[in-house]
Every structure is written in C-alpha cells, then in structure tokens.
Amino acid sequence: MMRMTQSGFTLIELVIVIVILGILAVMAIPKFINFSTDAQTAATNGIAAALSAGNSINYSARSASSANGVSVTNCTSVSATLQGGVLPTGYTITSLAISVGTTSTCTLTGPNGSSASFTGTGIN
Prior knowledge:
The protein has about 120 residues and is of the alpha+beta class. About 45% of the residues lie in helices and about 15% in strands.
C-alpha cells in the first residue's frame, strides 16, 4: 500500500509566523511615526535657510540699487525675498524690528511647533 504524504504548513507554524510579523510591526510603526516629525523639522530648517539666502541676495541687490529687491525693516518682511514673496502655509515669523545696516537673528515657526533661526539684515 502506498503512503501519501501531505505538504504544507501546520496551523501552529502559521500562527507563529503571524505572531512574529505582529511583533515586528509593533516595533517598526513608532519609528515611521518619528519620520513625520523629522520631515517637518527638516522642512522648517530648509525654509529658514531659503530665507537667509534670500535675505543675502536681497541685501546685495538693494545695496547696488534701491530699485532692486525689497526693503527689510522687520523679520517678517524677509519673507518677501522668497520666490513668490510669501511664506508657505503653516509657517510664521516672529516679528522683530531690524535697524538699517544691522543683522538680527529671526525665528521661523513651522507645523507642530518646529522652529529654526535665520538671519535678517536691515536695508531701506
């Protein structure tokens, strides 16, 4: 008489695999959630860097001719140096007066309270 063998996984083997996958998922999900916070912080830092760069370019252009660039007398007016002249939605700049010819450290606040500093140079 021939003996027939069955191939496949037992129920216990399948349950063990599902439990192991569940444990791995529980360990991995919090790490992916932290990526969202890191991404928002990186975006805020990127916009602050763009504000500093725009401020430098604006200062050089405005120094060459008052017809170029924009007047900067407050940290909030540095946003006009960005392409399009406005901050992205959800970002704010702390208002701080900047005297002509001086440099001030301004603060940009982004989503979820992330913040970064940028440089503003006053010019008329």
